[in-house]
Amino acid sequence: MTESLKLSSQYCFPLYxxxxxxxxxxRPFLKTIDLTYPQYLAMMVLxxxxxxxxxxxxxxxxxxSGTLTPLLKRLECKQLVSRHRGSEDERERLIKLxxxxxxxQPLAEEIPKQVAGCMKLNxxxxxxLRQLCRKLLx
Amino acid sequence: MTESLKLSSQYCFPLYxxxxxxxxxxRPFLKTIDLTYPQYLAMMVLxxxxxxxxxxxxxxxxxxSGTLTPLLKRLECKQLVSRHRGSEDERERLIKLxxxxxxxQPLAEEIPKQVAGCMKLNxxxxxxLRQLCRKLLx
DNA sequence: AAAAAATATATTGTGCACAATATAAATTCA
DNA sequence: TGAATTTATATTGTGCACAATATATTTTTT
Lengths: 138, 138
Prior knowledge:
Oligomer: homodimer
Largest sheet of chain A: 3 strands, antiparallel
CATH architecture of chain A: Orthogonal Bundle
Strand content of chain A: 5-15%
Number of strands of chain A: 3
Order of helices and strands of chain A: HHEHHEEHHH
Number of domains of chain A: 1
Strand order of the largest sheet of chain A: 1-3-2
Mean pLDDT of chain A: 97
Largest interface: A-B, 54 and 54 residues
CATH superfamily of chain A: Winged helix-like DNA-binding domain superfamily/Winged helix DNA-binding domain
Structural class of chain A: mainly alpha
CATH class of chain A: Mainly Alpha
Distance between the termini of chain A: 34 Å
């Protein structure tokens, strides 16, 4: 057996597995506000920005239109966002937070703390993990 | 704006994004042997074990039968594995590496090194990242 | 042994994630 | 200005990831 192909030798498998685990950890909390994790990420950006173009949102979340277009349609169905065209450029799609979307924010307020409470890592370790992931993403 | 809901304050978003990035980094290399990343993980276990029950494989990969059953059927279609029943227990599904599956291993040998070469993290940082992810997964 | 409970895997349905491609509008160039 | 190119988003198709549930077999209990 070659060492390099042993599961226990892999660096990326734990990362892949940890990301799955974390999204799963969010699920019960996000269920209370009827959002998936990627939807929650999009809503976080909108709570910050009020409105944003699909392309800009994609840059913030590292997701493309193939992922975002259907996701944003689902948020539109729930009346959390509205989808408009750019005023100058008709190709652009401007996503706006609705009042219903804005009203969701206070209900999400406690979720980060609650999830952190379920984590096996302390704040220091979470910070290290974040730095390493950010460097990987550079 | 509440600090706790800012995207830049999140600990898990970089982890989620980094995992997507890493799977994407593997893709061109895995394409040469016609495997997806989760399929590659399953094959790695089989290269180690030769045969394994679905449940045991799920424990190694942190995946359930809802994910593994269709994945293993696809590997079966490619004739990389065969799917049998347990000899004692008819409920069990025993997955066996085929000769074709075994023949794939040498072609995968160089992939871990190649992917590591694309990474923005050095070996030390990869090791730290792995340790943190493992602790999170405990 | 028959009924009940537990176990292993499969199925169903939803929502990503992404590559590849399509569409349509804007920009650049001839 | 008209054609070619670029840009922004949408569409299509594949394969996860998982919750919820179903099925079938085994084990335990009565």
